Amino acid sequence: MKYLKILALYIRVSTTEQAMEGYSLAAQERLLTDYCKAKNYMIYDIYRDEGISAKDICHRPGMRALIDDAMDGKFDGILVWKLTRFSRNLANLTATCDLLDKKGVSLISYSEAFDSTTPAGRMIRSMLGTVAQFEREVIAENVILAMTERAKQGKRTCSYILGYDLDGKDSLKINAAEAKIVRYLYDSYEARKSLIELEHICDQLGIHGKRGGYLTAWHIEKILTRPIYAGWNLFLGELYKGIHPSIITVQQFNKVQRLIKRQGKIAGRNRKRKIYILPEN
After folding, report:
1. Is 264 strand, coil or helix?
2. Which residues are catalytic?
3. 124-133 contacts, C-beta under 8 A, 24 or more apart
4. Would the pTM of this model clear 0.70, i.e. be above it?
5. I need a surface site. Which of 51, 82, 114, 139 has the fewest CB within 10 A?
């Protein structure tokens, strides 16, 4: 059988879209595969990115592999379910499509009728890309508003942190073993006043982070400057009293912040991480 075109299929779903019917990878793959059969197009390969947003290309392994193979001339075109699966960033979309156009690789959308091999088709593609970026920015703005409201209510704004485990949708509960590490770091810094020395001690004692990684001075400073351990949430530079239990007291947290700031001045370093002092009443 002689095929009319050789196409690569690209399917993507972000974390927030995982549960939405019609967005799933399986649903996209089924629709695009049936489309190719109906049109007598050969499928070169199917490239997938799961749980990844469309704000850029560099963090999408499936997309990077797709573009590399397109530059090697391995297929005639790329088929997507919607242009938003390919990119929601207009600058990325324009730059990538310029590369594809130069290689003679067309971009085809299953649900949006445009032909990128014609000037009119490229204009429609650009217009759809502008709408996609607008939608992405609105979604991001809505997420920030929702997260800010959560923070104001004292609900958690993170889901993975040393010393705590998730406690339902809104709060955190203390992980006893990890909390001992957090308290040890605060107590030890009060006594030793040296992040480098603490790094060496953690290495010698086999103390690691939540994912089992090595605790560098940078990681230790990050732990020592997180208000969450004293019962406060930090979101977009603002402090909010949390509903989760604290691991250390506000007084100890503030003392350690002042020590870190003072030690930085003594060493002649300007620390990039902002120091927060919590209310003690």
Report:
1. helix
2. 14
3. 125/83, 125/93, 125/97, 126/90, 126/94, 128/83, 129/83, 129/87, 129/90, 129/93, 129/94, 130/90, 132/54, 132/83, 132/84, 132/87, 132/88, 132/90, 132/93, 133/88, 133/89, 133/90, 133/93
4. no
5. 51
